[in-house]
């Protein structure tokens, strides 16, 4: 259905051997179950944005580099966003902050939620990130997910042993996010 509103599920970590892509894909599938919205993965690793290299502030939208124009066009193609990322040292990944900082007006008034994860769920990263979303004038949904992933959930290569079993307790929250996103985009 071409008329469906589109929501990007952003893979917010580029770390080698990351688990973020699998978590984001799982979340995309859970969000999309029976939804009127179309959820797509947007992987920051695929974009390979360099460290912010635009000479003027993003609010002016005077982009000098093709990678910025491409990122702007991609973001403008979505109606809402669900950001998925780990908590690193009580914060969120720098690559995600970099991607946000490239743009400004493109984020304005777009509804957003997040799924953080870590041994304590990612509440510290979520708190910081929500502050940034407010600074970008995004409409932060009431519901977000803080998924607890313990050392017992990962194998010797730091990969999730059973993605569905680990994340299943968060499925109801993702369904609520879909309802809130649908309402915000209605």
From TrEMBL:
Keyword field: Oxidoreductase
Domain of life where this protein originates: Bacteria
Residue ranges of domain NADPH-dependent FMN reductase-like in the record: 6-143
A Gene Ontology molecular function term of the record: oxidoreductase activity
Alphabetized Gene3D superfamilies for the sequence: 3.40.50.360
Entry EC number(s): 1.-.-.-
Alphabetical list of InterPro entries matching this protein: Flavoprotein-like_sf, FMN_Rdtase-like_dom, NAD(P)H-dep_reductase
Any Pfam family the entry gives: FMN_red
Protein's UniProt name: NADPH-dependent FMN reductase
């Amino acid at each position: 259905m071409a008329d469906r509103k589109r929501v990007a599920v952003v893979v917010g970590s580029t770390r080698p051997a990351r688990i973020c892509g699998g978590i984001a894909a799982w979340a995309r599938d859970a969000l999309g179950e029976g939804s009127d919205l179309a959820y797509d993965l947007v992987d920051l690793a695929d974009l390979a944005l360099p460290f912010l290299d635009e000479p003027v502030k993003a609010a002016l939208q005077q982009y000098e580099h093709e990678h910025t124009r491409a990122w702007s066009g991609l973001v403008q193609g979505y109606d809402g966003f669900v950001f998925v990322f780990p908590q690193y040292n009580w914060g969120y990944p720098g690559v995600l902050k970099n991607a946000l900082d490239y743009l400004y007006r493109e984020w304005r008034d777009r509804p957003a939620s997040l799924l953080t994860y870590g041994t304590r769920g990612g509440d510290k990263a979520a708190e910081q990130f929500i502050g940034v979303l407010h600074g970008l004038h995004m409409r932060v949904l009431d519901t977000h997910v803080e998924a607890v992933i313990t050392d017992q959930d990962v194998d010797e290569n730091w990969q999730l042993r059973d993605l569905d079993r680990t994340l299943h307790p968060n499925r109801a929250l993702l369904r609520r996010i879909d309802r809130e996103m649908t309402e915000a985009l209605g």
